[in-house]
Amino acid sequence: MAGSNPNAKPMNLTLKVWRQKSRNTEGRIVDYQVKDISPDMSFLEMLDVLNEDLLRQGDEPVAFDHDCREGICGSCNLFINGRAHGPEAGTTTCQLHMRKFSDGDTITIEPWRAAAFPVNKDLSVDRSAFDRIIQAGGYVSVNTGGSPDANEIPIPKEIADRAFEAATCIGCGACVAACKNASAMLFVSAKVSQLALLPQGHVERNTRVENMVAQMDKEGFGACTNIGSCAAECPVGISLENIAILNREFLSAKATSNNLA
């Protein structure tokens, strides 16, 4: 393994893994033992080792979501020892290394727990509710054609930086999993703020926030009570300030809206 520490001592671990055949069946915690786990492995590589062992034994492997394994796509959503993405702040599950654990540890691994994120199988959950929220308003109207000059619309650096920080949201759902109400406010606020801050997003500014909030409520996400656990567990550090921006955008849109629902 590239960059591995040859002096690192392998670990033996007990895994308590949530197993569930489908969203229509009951699930349960199943205990597994994994041996000779390198501290330089990522958490997902450790799960790969577990699945290889299960396949050799003729058992069904554990289903879990993953793709880029670089902390970009947001699909590696796991609840590890009661924390979204595990014990290290600012880290996705795929970036979490086994050196954060010790030989002999017991690790409990569960899927996101939210009514709006039903379990597909085992540790894999359906996060398509986020996609439908984006489809409701997370876009801008632009004319297609030749590529515009990068400096055609001057944007102050402070605004550009704030929009970029909001745009770093990877849509993993850790904010929902960490919230006691399973609220999606941090996710929605990041998407609304990103576009509301930029001039390109002003065309749909009012309808965007109305439609996205309405879709968020329709999906069954809970209300925000400003506890802050969402921002604390966000792997890319999305700020709670975005929720304030969302609330301001929503109130402003409602003040001029014909939609009084």
Automatic annotation (TrEMBL):
Positions of the 4Fe-4S ferredoxin-type domain: 160-190
Top-rank taxon, per record: Bacteria
Cofactor: [2Fe-2S] cluster; [3Fe-4S] cluster
Example of a GO MF term: 2 iron, 2 sulfur cluster binding
InterPro entries for the chain: 2Fe-2S_ferredoxin-like_sf, 2Fe2S_fd_BS, 4Fe4S_Fe-S-bd, Beta-grasp_dom_sf, Helical_ferredxn, SDH/FRD_Iron-Sulfur, Succ_DH/fum_Rdtase_N
Annotated GO biological process: aerobic respiration; respiratory electron transport chain
Listed PROSITE patterns: 2FE2S_FER_1 (PS00197), 4FE4S_FER_2 (PS51379)
Transmembrane segments: none
Recorded family membership: Belongs to the succinate dehydrogenase/fumarate reductase iron-sulfur protein family.
Cross-referenced NCBIfam families: PRK07570.1 (NF005746)
Protein name from the UniProt record: Succinate dehydrogenase / fumarate reductase iron-sulfur subunit
Taxonomic lineage of the native organism: Bacteria, Pseudomonadati, Bacteroidota, Cytophagia, Cytophagales
